UniProtKB/TrEMBL annotation:
Cross-referenced CDD domains: SRPBCC_3
Name of protein: SRPBCC family protein
InterPro entries with a match to the protein in the record: Polyketide_cyclase/dehydratase, START-like_dom_sf
One Pfam family this sequence matches: Polyketide_cyc2
Source organism (scientific name): Pontibacillus salicampi
Length: 153
């Protein structure tokens, strides 16, 4: 099972970063490259424990939908979303927020399993893992930009 880990320092309080990371409109702004939008379940506002959201997006040239559920919420420290249906066999995405000086270290841990057995394993090695690393890093960079802008006022 591939695991992608990353962290980024954001010069904004943990509470701001936590709220932005679970805000559906901010999620849409941070995933503009894939034209991601909420089309089912909760489609606006802040995600809470138990909420599901269906995202529609274009990844690797394929328009697709993915439904995720917020399975854990420890405000403002951590939340977890897990795939209910979608292109992966499964995934668990842990979002962690740690106060650091006047800012926040935001950590992502994205563990997934591709479908299609051996073909999926090959796709992971050749395409999927690198694509997901870039996608998650780009989203984190954009969330950092928005949080720091909001914090500076």
């Amino acid at each position: 099972m591939p695991i992608i880990k990353q962290e980024i320092y954001i010069d904004a309080p943990r509470e701001i970063c936590f709220q932005l990371a679970r805000d559906i409109e901010t999620h849409t702004r941070t995933t503009a490259s894939s034209k991601e939008k909420a089309v089912g379940g909760k489609t606006s506002g802040l995600l809470e424990k138990g909420d599901t959201v269906t995202w529609e997006a274009t990844h690797l040239g394929i328009r697709q939908q993915l439904t995720a559920k917020i399975t854990e919420m420890e405000e403002p420290h951590r939340f977890i979303d897990e795939m209910v249906t979608g292109a992966f066999h499964s995934f668990t995405h842990i979002h962690t927020f740690i106060s650091s000086g006047r800012g926040t270290i935001m950590k992502d841990r994205f563990a997934y399993k591709s479908p299609l057995g051996l073909f999926g394993i090959l796709a992971d090695k050749v395409i999927v893992k690198k694509y997901m690393q870039r996608f998650l890093a780009s989203r984190a960079d954009e969330l950092k930009r928005i949080a720091e802008e909001e914090h500076r006022g």
